[in-house]
Design brief:
Radius of gyration of chain B: 19 Å
CATH class of the largest domain in chain B: Alpha Beta
Largest interface: A-B, 31 and 27 residues
Structural class of chain B: alpha+beta
Largest sheet of chain A: 7 strands, mixed
Distance between the termini of chain A: 64 Å
Shape of chain A: globular
Bound molecules: flavin-adenine dinucleotide
CATH topology of the largest domain in chain A: Aldehyde Oxidoreductase, domain 4
Order of helices and strands of chain B: EHEHEEEHHHHHHEEHEEEEEEHHH
CATH superfamily of the largest domain in chain A: Aldehyde oxidase/xanthine dehydrogenase, molybdopterin binding domain
Strand order of the largest sheet of chain A: 3-5-1-12-9-10-11
Number of strands of chain B: 13
Radius of gyration of chain A: 28 Å
Distance between the termini of chain B: 52 Å
Number of helices of chain B: 12
Strand content of chain A: 15-25%
Shape of chain B: globular
Number of domains of chain B: 3
Strand order of the largest sheet of chain B: 4-5-10-6-7
Oligomer: heterodimer
Low-confidence stretches of chain A: none
Helix content of chain B: 25-40%
Mean pLDDT of chain B: 95
CATH topology of the largest domain in chain B: Uridine Diphospho-n-acetylenolpyruvylglucosamine Reductase, domain 3
Chain lengths: 800, 298
């Protein structure tokens, strides 16, 4: 790790280089890409939540002017492989278009290709599909009961995965406890819902045998999976990463979209474009997020010291699991939150139901788990009549205990939880906040203060694949950077990812500038494509600044090593006697003797006669970095090192509730955050604010709901309620810095910041307000006004 | 989410517009501000072959004071009405309701006529028009007719307008002195269609209610005006007991349905809460205006 004091660009306020492009409307999204002759896809979707498809008649559609082709699931299935599942589920087939059975309302049944999207939609209306409705199962717990209708008949049960872990002396720790508090919390189905839906353009070049793909993706192994489903070699699929992705936070996977468009492009010898509309996205995009029921039992001594935790979770994956069940494994790496809990039990069950499929969402299961843990901590505080701040302080892992190994075997790298909590308390001026709360109460409101202290594991590796499916022994999850110094001395950094607003260009330029001692403003950052680029796993798991940071450090070190050798050779001294200083090579004993950047570049590119033996010409280096602390499999006792870095955040929020309407107003919001060394303060602040807004949405507004027949009730943004600027209060924030010992500058992850703690904090505030009036807590998100009012009303009626 | 293929007509005069509606009315739709119609077109829930955009018919966009009140042309934008001094002083209930509709960009395009002709029972303006006994003027090549508000809203998104008819203007009666108005609603987010809304206007003389008008939105297929509650209020000083009784009476009469956003019980309860709040605010403003400000048209 580099000393922070010496940093020139890292951690300093600096322009975010992406902002201007986006703010002036000059992003380039997949919808902006329309090669000549492009055909457009419209979709025929199932109106039933579960039905056998008995016939598809496309004649009328094909007769329509402008319709080029109609593709059914059966035809597509003949020539493609099913989409990748990460669990061993040989009888669960996920395909772009349903074959024989549609398993949720909105599932794609056929695709219509036409000269315009409007004509494709006209055509889709003319495709007539015969269905035999089948019984539906929607409630995840009902799906577990014997006799429940099965979603995948061949699989025989609705259980997709069930894993049980027990770490430490659970029986002993429970026995020595003075009490155990049990809570049940419900995290209803929501997601990150970007303004840009998923889109893809595919174009097959028959002569070069190359499939060009532009897609709004954030997905590891997208090119590989596309090639394999299409049954063509990987070197015939070129995915372009220089496409702006209009928001994602995990959900822009689009593998089924990619396979469908790729197949059609190859069949039709024309570019094919598929841009989901909002209904296709919301109902059939397979992009919903975790949908969980938690039962938590937290044991503690009379002093409020935690002794053991047990978490049972059922997750409703919807009809097709894809990567989503793996989200049950990631929280194992932070299963006790920031608390010292010596033992833990974790039972995780993934269930399939007749809803659209789930996908990875911001935090990969951590935010719901944080909400569950924090709900239990608050419940214990209520039970013991103990202050919620005090119970947290009493159980925090202490600053001098790091690296700290939790019972599940993961080591937390570093942290100072009490200091971050203190910062939030100071920022909020807690006594003043309490006075404000009392004023609100005096004015007839219910008012409460919420607190949440939560972790954000960062530096994602892939070990959750092995945890959920021991047969899968994947441990490698690399990231790469290519550096090029051209003949004029200009620096280019190339990465092989697309970005969804995370400001990676700024991050790469800043880190590289710092490494090379060159102004980041002079560094060009470019995106390769999947064939000319390097191995990469895409920006998931709050990992880019950590893993790409490592690749940048190593590539810069290689480059500097080369410059040093050229310099030393020409200065006539041993390499050991020169230093690299901001681009120049300087003789340590005599700083007047130096070879400047431009001179070294000229030699490396054009003067073979001045090159030392064994040094390649040109200045081009690539480094592929492992994720720090990865490489181990899950141990036989179920212990495992998950992510390497642990960011931490404390939220403090004052909620005011109108007791007569149940409407919640967030009156004040404070947040202290520690992601180690901040690379760019504005970017981190943007993450924290955005994540907090997202978390407030989850806590109070957002839900993908279904009726009893499995029809989606959330038809559009009229019903899926994203919070707007009116709903998000001013957020005051403060940063703390506990550097990570495992990263180049001490940085940790920040891509999920804010979202990790906001749902828990808002719930804590609402329930604190209710508890003060003797009202039972609301243990389900979102907390709608009618839920809050019903809780109040139950108490009032019970009292009268 | 693309509309079906349609022809767009853009008449410049009222007569041209009426001719087009006579020709295409059965298979056509009037396009006003598009804020409700365009989503319906894009979802293909509305499938007209012809759209008659009346945005160029200047005579429809006039808002004027008359001897008896305020007459608002159908194409007057919600934002213009919101900023109109005539509306503020002569039609306080309309003024109170308008800011509750959606957000400014939507009110910049959305029209009064569009909202009323759309007939959404959760919307603010149908409730206001019903409370005030506004008069709707409809025109077709067959002639003109006036439709009282009480007969205009038939059911969810259905009004008394015939397919060839254009709503041209809405007449709101002016208020007497000593009148106060309030609009109260609860939505899940600011700018959303309300879960429940209450429009209330009371006229007070010597501390007693001489006229009370109340209408609820979001609790039935049409705006729902509880006349019994209005009767209860008349002659009283709208004190706490009376208001509480009124709120309870409303809870007993409304039959809301539950949905994703709120249960029926919640809506019923909140209808009473909002009624009480709106009445109190209306009564207080009325009293203040009785104390000094004569709002009648000079
Ligand atoms: C995000 C959003 C939020 C909204 N929130 C609210 C809200 O909280 N409260 C609310 O009340 N509204 C809300 N609206 C709807 C908005 O107020 C619309 O403007 C209004 O309902 C319709 O007015 P318009 O001028 O846009 O009419 P259009 O959308 O053009 O037309 C609506 C209907 O009325 C018919 N029509 C229009 N004018 C005439 C006429 N002169 N004669 C005969 N028929 C006619 C049309 O044919 C169509 O059927 C919202 C809209 C949006 C997009």
């Amino acid at each position: 790790m580099t000393e922070r004091a010496a940093l020139r660009w890292v951690s300093r306020p600096g322009a975010v280089r992406e902002d201007r492009r986006f703010v002036t409307g000059h992003g380039r999204y997949v919808a902006d890409i329309t090669p000549p002759g492009t055909l457009h896809v419209g979709l025929v979707t199932s109106p039933h939540a579960h039905a056998r498809i008995t016939g598809i008649d496309a004649e009328a559609a094909l007769a329509l002017d402008g319709v080029v082709a109609v593709l059914t699931g059966e035809e597509l299935a003949k020539e493609t492989d099913p989409l990748r599942q990460y669990l061993d589920l040989p009888d669960v087939h996920w395909r772009p278009l349903a074959v024989d059975v549609a398993r949720y309302a909105g599932e794609w049944v056929a695709a219509v290709v036409a000269t315009s999207r409007a004509v494709a939609e006209d055509g889709a209306e003319l495709v007539s599909v015969d269905y035999d409705p089948l019984p539906v199962v929607l409630d995840p717990e009902a799906a577990l009961r014997p006799g429940a209708p099965t979603v995948h008949t061949g699989h025989g049960t609705n259980v997709l995965a069930h894993r049980e872990f027990s770490w430490g002396d659970v029986a002993g720790d429970v026995a020595r406890a003075d009490g155990t508090t049990q809570v049940r919390v419900r995290w209803n189905r929501n997601s990150t819902v970007p303004i840009e839906t998923f889109g893809v353009v595919a174009d097959w070049d028959e002569h070069r045998q190359l499939l060009d793909v532009w897609a709004s993706i954030q997905m590891p192994q997208f090119p590989d999976q596309l090639a394999s489903a299409l049954r063509i070699p990987g070197n015939q699929v070129r995915v372009h990463f220089d496409v702006d992705v209009g928001g994602s936070y995990g959900v822009k996977r689009g593998i089924k979209h990619g396979v469908l468009a790729g197949y059609l492009a190859r069949q039709l010898h024309a570019p094919v474009k598929l841009i989901e509309d909002r209904a296709e996205n919301m109902h059939g995009g397979d992009f919903h997020g975790p949908d969980r029921i938690f039962d938590i039992a937290l044991s503690y001594t009379a002093d409020g010291v935690f002794t053991s935790i047990r978490i049972d979770v059922v997750d409703d994956e919807g009809a097709y699991p894809g990567r989503s069940p793996l989200q049950l494994a990631k929280p194992i790496g932070a299963i006790v939150g920031p608390y010292r809990v010596p033992s833990a039990v974790y039972h995780a069950t993934a269930v399939t139901t007749n809803k659209t499929g789930q996908v990875a969402v911001r935090g990969f299961g951590q935010a719901p788990t944080n909400y569950a843990i924090e709900s239990a901590v608050d419940a214990v505080a209520r039970e013991l009549g103990m202050d919620r701040f005090e119970i947290r302080r009493r159980n925090f892992v202490a600053p001098d205990e790091f690296p700290y190994r939790i019972p599940s075997g993961t080591e937390y790298d570093s942290g100072d939880y009490p200091a971050v909590l203190d910062k939030a308390v100071t920022l909020a001026d807690l006594p003043a906040l309490e006075r404000r709360r009392d004023e609100l109460r005096g004015a007839g409101k219910l008012a409460g203060i919420g607190v949440a202290t939560c972790l954000e594991p960062g530096g994602g590796n892939a070990i959750f694949e092995n945890i959920m499916n021991p047969a899968n022994d994947k441990t490698t999850f690399p990231e790469a950077c290519r550096l090029r110094v051209d003949g004029s001395g200009a620096v280019v950094a190339v990465v092989s990812i697309s970005s969804a607003g995370q400001s990676h260009d700024t991050m790469v330029a800043t880190l590289l500038g710092e490494e090379l001692g060159r102004d980041p403003a002079t560094v060009t950052v470019l995106r390769a494509d999947s064939l000319s680029g390097m191995p990469s796993q895409s920006p998931v798991g709050s990992r880019m600044t950590i893993v790409l940071g490592e690749a940048i450090r190593a590539a810069a070190t290689d480059l500097k090593d080369r410059l040093l050798r050229v310099g030393a050779h020409n200065l006539g001294v041993p390499v050991a006697d020169v230093d690299y200083v901001d681009g120049d090579v300087v003789v340590r004993a005599d700083s007047e003797r130096r070879l400047r950047w431009g001179e070294i570049v000229a030699i490396a590119h054009r003067k073979q006669h001045l090159m030392p033996d064994g040094v390649e010409p040109g200045l081009e280096v690539v480094h592929v970095a492992h994720t720090p602390r990865s490489g181990g499999l899950t141990a036989p006792d179920g212990t495992v090192q998950l992510y390497p870095c642990f960011s931490f955040e404390t939220h403090l929020v004052l909620a005011s509730i109108d007791p007569d309407t149940g409407v919640v107003d967030l009156d004040r919001y404070y947040l202290a955050h520690d992601c180690g060394t901040v690379v760019n303060p504005e970017v981190v602040r943007g993450m924290v604010y955005g994540g907090t807004a997202h978390g407030i949405g989850v806590a109070l507004y957002e839900q993908f709901a279904y009726d009893d027949a499995g029809q989606p009730l959330t038809q559009s943004f009229m019903d899926y309620l994203l919070p707007s600027t009116h709903e998000i209060p001013d957020i005051a924030d403060d940063e703390h810095c506990t550097p990570s010992p495992f990263t180049t500058f001490g940085q940790k992850g920040a891509g999920e910041a804010g979202y990790m703690g906001a749902p828990a904090a808002v719930a804590s505030a609402v329930n604190d307000a209710l508890a003060a009036s003797g009202v039972a807590p609301v243990m389900s998100l979102p907390m709608k006004p009618s839920d809050v009012w019903a809780a109040i009303n139950r108490t009032t009626e019970g009292n009268s | 989410m693309k509309p079906i293929d349609f022809d767009l007509h853009r008449p410049e005069t009222l007569d041209e517009a009426l001719d087009l509606l006579a020709e295409h009315g059965d298979d056509g739709k009037v396009l006003a501000g598009g804020q409700s119609l365009l989503p319906l077109l894009n979802f293909r829930l509305a499938r007209p072959a012809h759209l008659v955009d009346v945005g160029r018919v200047a005579s429809l966009a006039v808002l004027r004071r008359t001897a008896t009140g305020v007459t608002v042309g159908a194409m007057v934008r919600q934002a213009s009405a919101e900023q109109s001094p005539a509306v503020a002083s002569h039609c306080p209930l309309l003024a109170a309701a308008l800011p509750n509709i959606a957000h400014p960009p939507i009110r910049n395009r959305g029209t009064l006529g569009g909202s009323l002709a759309h007939g959404d029972p959760a919307a603010e303006l149908p409730s206001v028009a019903t409370a005030l006994d506004a008069v709707f003027v409809a025109a077709s090549i067959r002639g003109r007719r006036e439709i009282p508000a009480a007969e205009f809203f038939r059911t969810h998104l259905v009004t008394a307008l015939e397919p060839d008819e254009l709503l041209t203007e809405i007449r709101f009666p002016a208020t007497d002195s000593g009148t106060g108005a309030a609009f109260a609603e609860v939505g899940r987010r600011r700018g959303d269609f309300a879960l429940v809304g209450v429009a209330a206007q009371v006229t007070v003389a010597d501390g007693r209610v001489t006229d009370a008008r109340v209408c609820l939105s979001g609790v039935a297929d049409t705006p729902s005006r509880p006349k019994d509650v209005e009767d209860m209020l008349r002659g009283t000083a709208a004190d706490d007991d009376v208001v509480r009784d009124a709120a309870n009476a409303v809870r007993e009469t409304v039959e809301p349905v539950g949905d994703l956003h709120a249960t029926a019980d919640y809506r019923r309860h909140v209808a009473g809460v909002l009624l009480a709040r709106a009445l109190r605010e209306a009564y207080e403003t009325a009293e203040r205006s009785e104390d000094g400000h004569d709002l009648r048209i000079a």
